[in-house]
Write a structure and sequence with these properties.
Helix content is about 30%, strand content about 10%. It is an alpha+beta fold. The protein starts with 12 loop residues before the first helix and ends with a helix.
Length: about 240
């Protein structure tokens, strides 16, 4: 398994971002285009396996590095053990989340010697890309959209679902990183973790952009109409910190 030596590791913001982008591309390919091959390689009968993305846009399922400590942060260990105990989509989504965490840890390990402004710029460049989780789950990122009639950017707007059920959102859900079919089919409630359902009322936090069942955050459609900017309980509690 080639992870590259520390002496030849990327040093500048641009080099680190290129390394991140290439590793991310490899992981995304494993979990999407090459998913059948990836699934087959994650045999639960084998030892602890990890998913690696490499700087040449490739991916690899392999045992963890033997060096202690390793030259680079290691990805999640034992991804193969849960393969047959979960729904395939849920398993892939879980690996995507862990892969996002690993990719960030590698980037900021390489950027440990960067100054404050460079670290901020690096994260901004990374944040402009959709996460592996968003790509794998086809999740849409909420975008704030100006209300052309009132001129208010944060006024709640209504969006009608396919079945005609009216749902109120504090933000309009626009296309972000993929095609515009099944716009919210993989959205999870930020409170209970439940899947999106067109016959339930949902609301998005204008701060963290997570979606919630109205019932989980005690917001009704009528109440949402009077909220100019909705903050979920977690973001509201951070205000005083």
């Amino acid at each position: 398994m080639e992870v590259g030596s520390v002496s030849s590791a990327p040093r500048t913001v641009e080099e680190i971002f290129k390394d991140y982008s290439s590793r991310r591309a490899g992981v995304v390919r494993a979990l999407t285009h090459d998913v059948d091959e990836f699934y087959a390689q994650c045999d639960p009968e084998k030892e602890n396996l990890c998913l690696y993305g490499h700087p040449n846009d490739s991916w690899e399922v392999n045992l963890p590095a033997e060096e202690v400590p390793p030259e680079l942060p290691e990805p999640a260990l034992g991804i193969n053990f849960a393969r047959d105990g979960m729904e395939r989509r849920d398993w892939l989504t879980l690996i995507a989340v862990h892969s996002d965490s690993w990719l960030l840890s590698v980037a900021f390990y390489l950027g440990a010697r960067l100054n404050r402004n460079d670290r901020k710029r690096l994260f901004s460049m990374i944040n402009d890309l959709p996460t592996v989780f968003e790509v794998v789950s086809n999740r849409r990122q909420s975008k704030e959209k100006s209300n052309m009639d009132s001129g208010s950017k944060s006024k709640p707007s209504n969006k009608r679902s396919i079945d005609g059920q009216m749902k109120s959102y504090s933000k309009t859900a626009d296309e972000a990183y993929g095609e515009d079919n099944d716009e919210h089919s993989e959205t999870l409630c930020g409170a209970c973790g439940g899947n999106y359902s067109a016959d339930e009322f949902w609301i998005a936090c204008d701060v963290c952009e997570r979606w919630f069942h109205g019932k989980c955050v005690k917001i009704t459609p009528a109440k949402a109409e009077s909220i100019k900017q909705y903050k979920c309980p977690s973001c509201s509690s951070k205000k005083g910190r």
